[in-house]
Automatic annotation (TrEMBL):
The keyword tRNA-binding does not apply. PROSITE patterns: DPCK. NCBIfam families: dephospho-CoA kinase. Keywords: ATP-binding, Nucleotide-binding. It holds the Pfam family CoaE. The lineage of its organism: Eukaryota, Metazoa, Chordata, Tunicata, Ascidiacea. This is Dephospho-CoA kinase domain-containing protein. It comes from Ciona intestinalis (Transparent sea squirt).
């Protein structure tokens, strides 16, 4: 089994591509979804987040108010570091478990849908293919303003806070252009999946890397540090 990294920028269409991959039967580990799962009431990350940031980040249903928490960490770098320290170990543990389950099921490859894949020091070294969902700066700005009801200034601030798509594309082994029609994007995704299914070569370093990931996962799962 090998790993495929999927990334992009805010409002570039990564989530849409990820959805198409699932529809085509691919095993996808969605980091954003995992991040939501570890923040559910009763989870370790939920408890520690409330202890750190207070009850004001909890909504009327007793769940994390993502907008309220987002406002805090977006404007405060130290608060963002605190949150990352709370959530990242839990997210990594859960993602590794999902990868191992796919391995045991016999999946040929697993797609890691990670917004900050390029910036990550954990996942990017283990992926065979790095897929970037790209779009023009104008389309990205317009989509973000429409989707989140942002002003142009608010949208630009969030876009510029990320690594530019142009820089991510330089590192990509595959670029999916999401400037065109929905069907055009679907066609690119289908072609990429067909190419992945034809890939049967094994890379010694990938095998070693996956074995290393599994060993780290087992260590994390059974470590008392992350079981509290």
């Amino acid at each position: 089994m090998f790993l495929v990294g999927l990334t992009g920028g805010i409002a570039s269409g990564k989530s849409t591509v990820s959805k198409y991959l699932v529809e085509l039967g691919c095993s996808v580990v969605d980091a954003d979804l995992v991040a939501r799962e570890v923040m559910l009431p009763g989870e370790t990350a939920f408890r520690r987040t409330v202890e750190t940031f207070g009850r004001e980040v909890v909504d009327g249903n007793g769940e994390i108010n993502r907008e309220a928490l987002g406002e805090i960490i977006f404007r405060d770098a130290e608060a963002r570091k605190k949150l990352n320290k709370i959530t990242h170990p839990q997210i990594i543990k859960k993602m590794l478990l999902k990868i191992l389950m796919s391995f045991l099921k016999g999946d040929r490859f697993v797609v890691l849908d990670v917004p900050l894949l390029v910036e990550s020091k954990i996942w990017v070294r283990f992926v065979r293919h790095l897929v970037v969902v790209n779009c023009s700066p104008g389309a990205q700005l317009e989509r973000l303003m429409k989707r989140n009801d942002y002003t142009e200034e608010e949208a630009r601030i969030r876009i510029t806070s990320q690594t530019p798509l142009s820089e991510k594309c330089k590192l990509a082994t595959r670029i999916i252009n999401n400037d065109g029609s929905i069907e055009n994007t679907r066609c690119q995704v289908r072609e990429f999946v067909e190419d992945l299914k034809k890939s049967w070569s094994f890379n010694f370093y990938e095998v070693c890397g996956l074995s290393f990931v599994c060993c780290i996962m087992l260590k994390i799962v059974f470590s008392k540090k992350y079981l509290v």
